[in-house]
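Notes from the pairing session

We agreed to fold both candidates in a single pass and log them together. This is the raw record for the first candidate, unedited. Please don't reformat it; downstream parsing expects exactly this layout.

Candidate A
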Amino acid sequence: MDLNDKNEEKKDLDKNKESWGDKLDETKENLSEKYEEVTDKIQGSIEETKDSINKTVKSGVKKTKSFFKKLFIGLFVLALLAFGAYMLYSNWVFSEGTRTGQLIKISKKGYVFKTYEGQLNLGGIEGGPEGMMGTIWNFSMKKEDMYHKLEELEGKKVMLRYKEINKSMPWQGDTNYFVYEVEERE
């Protein structure tokens, strides 16, 4: 082997080194570009997933709010209907009639709601835990003018026309019997 051959080999080696260096640089650039592409794709996918999750959550929140709003309105309407039905039932006239006796008490009473109340002695004797006593009938009135009329007739014999309802409310009176007309009797 002579010197020329060695120089040529050296030149070949240098060319190979350069060629390998160029290939290595090219491979680095390719890898760098592919890395950026994959990173961009992953970030894009992450953003799409985030957007999809946000849309789903917002949709769920909106549906939940809508459901509870409808539920609240429905329960409120149901409560109003139930209250109205109860008031209708409570004020339903169960019976009407008259009672005659001696008017022994008439009063206006109540802490919050002032109501007009009275007692009528129907006559007869009734036995109870307190002994023998007259048969007393308690009643209520809704109108103040009726109260004043009965005040004048206290101690006298009267006939009262009344209506009995199923259940009186605290602002109506203490009893379920409501007097609406009075006649003095001899």
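Candidate B (folded immediately after A)
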Amino acid sequence: MIRNFGLTEILLVLLVLVLLFGARRIPDLARSLGRSLSEFKKGRREGAEDDDEDEQSKSA
């Protein structure tokens, strides 16, 4: 079951993250997560382009 998170739940998750990783590591983790997400999107976009090229070559 998925529900919307309230302010209390978000603050609790942030507190746990700070306790587990420390305040210094959180920006590094966020930065690496952003890079990973952009690489994933780039790969998805390139895969879609490859699929389009394959479909065009089959129909020609």
